[in-house]
Amino acid sequence: MHDHRRLGRELELFDTDPLMGAGLPYWLPDGAIVRHALEEYVREQERAAGYRHVYSPVLGKRELYEISGHWSHYSDDMFPPMELGGEQVVMRPSLCPHHALIYRSRSHSYRELPLRIAELGGMYRSEPSGVLGGLTRVRSIQLNDAHIFCTLEQAVDEARSALELIGRAYADLGIRAARHRLSLPGEGGKYVADPELWERATGLLEEVLAGAGVEYDAVPGEAAFYGPKIDVQVVDPAGREATLSTVQIDFHQPERFDLHYIGADGAKHRPVMVHRSIIGSVERAVAQLIEEHGGAFPAWLAPVQLVVLPVSGAQEEQAYDVVRRAVARGLRAEVAGAGQGSLGARIRAARLVPYQAVIGEREAEGGLAAVRLRDGRRPEPVPTAELLDRIAGRVAARGPELWADA
C-alpha cells in the first residue's frame, strides 16, 4: 500500500516540524512543483469554464461569521478570535462569506448571471491533535473554491456543469471516485433551522444527479450547516473514505447577506449561491495523488519529467545541451551524470521519472537519444529534437499515456 506520509518524506515532497506546529506541513521544492502544476491546471480549467479569479484576505471580523452563520454553527472548528484595534478578528474557516461580500460590493443585473468567481485561498480549521495526519487532515488549508451566483432557473445547470468539471479533472489526474454522496442534514442543532430551504436545495441536487446519470448514496448527518451537498468520495489504501470534491446549492447565505440582482422586471431578486470545489483542498488532493500513483505522477505533474543519462563523462556536454533545450520548452529536466554511479544505478534511481534519455557514444554522434519510459517500454532511439517534441506534446495533452505512436 502507498502511504502518502511515508512517500511524501521519502520523495522529499513535504515535511513537518514541531516548531511550526502539528497540522502545519511545509512543502519542499519537488512538492511545491507538484502543487504549483496542480494549482495552475485548476485555474486554467476554471478560466476555460467562465470563472473569474479573485483574492480575499484570510482574516475577517467576527461579525462577518456571525452573519454567515459560521459562528453559531461552526465555531468549535474555528480558531479563537484575536483582538485587533478594539475589534475581534478571526482566521477564516471558509471562503464563502468573503465571496458573498465581493458579490455584494456592487449591483448586478440578471444579464450578468451566472457570475462565477473562484479562488485558491487559505483557510484555517482548529482540528484536534488526535485527527491530524500528513496532508489529509491539516490546520492550514489551501482550498480550491468557487461560488456561482445565479438565478433559480440556472442553478441546476450550473451545479451539473461543476460536477462535469470535477469528472474531467479526475480523468486528467488519474484519480478514481469511490462513490458520490448526497449529504443531508441529521439530528441535532448543527444545521440551519429552515425546512423549506433544505427541501428546495435537496430537490435541486437530486435533479442534478439524475440529469448527470450519477448513482449516489443519500447519507444523513453529512450536510454543511447551511445546506445539502454532493460529495465526491475517494478512498485511501487503508480503505478510509474522505470527501475530495463538493457541489452545493445554498439559499441561506444569499439571504443572510441580503444579496440581490436586478431582474428583467426592474425589481430586486435573490440569487442562488452554488458552492463548488473541483479538487477540494490542495493538501488532500496531493495526498490522494501520491497514494493513487505511488509517487509516479502523470507526466504533466511529475517534479522531474525528463532525466538525461550520459553513459560516460564524454557525453555529458550533449546531455546538458538536451536539458537546456528541454527547459527552454518549459519541461522539467535534469542530468544524472556518470559521477552519480553506474548507468544501471542511475536508471533505478530515476525510476519514477516519466522519461529517461540515455546518450552513449553512438547516440551522441548521431544526435539521438535511447528512450526509456517509466512503464518499461523502450522505443527506438529518436533524434533529441523529436524526443522533446513528443514529451512536450504528451505533457500538454495531460493524459495518462506516455508515448504516442508516430
Q: Which outline best applies? A: elongated
Helix content: 25-40%
Number of helices: 13
Task: Walk across the major sheet and give the strand order.
Answer: 3-7-8-15-12-11-9-10
The separation of the N and C termini measures 36 Å
Oligomer: single chain
Which value, in Å, is the CA radius of gyration?
24 Å
Q: Quote the beta fraction.
A: 15-25%
Q: How would you classify the helix and strand content by structural class?
A: alpha+beta
Q: Main sheet?
A: 8 strands, mixed
Mean pLDDT: 94
Beta strands, count: 20
Poorly predicted residue ranges: none
Write up this protein:
This protein is α+β, with helices and mostly antiparallel strands and 406 residues long. It is built from 13 helices and 20 strands. The strands form five sheets. It has an eight-stranded mixed β-sheet with strand order 3-7-8-15-12-11-9-10, sandwiched between helices. The chain has a five-stranded mixed β-sheet with strand order 17-16-18-19-20, sandwiched between helices. It has a three-stranded antiparallel β-sheet with strand order 4-6-5. Strand 11 and strand 12 form a beta hairpin. Helix 1 crosses helix 9 and helix 6 (152-173) packs across helix 7 (195-212). The longest helix is centred in the middle third of the chain and has 22 residues, at 152-173. The mean pLDDT is 94.
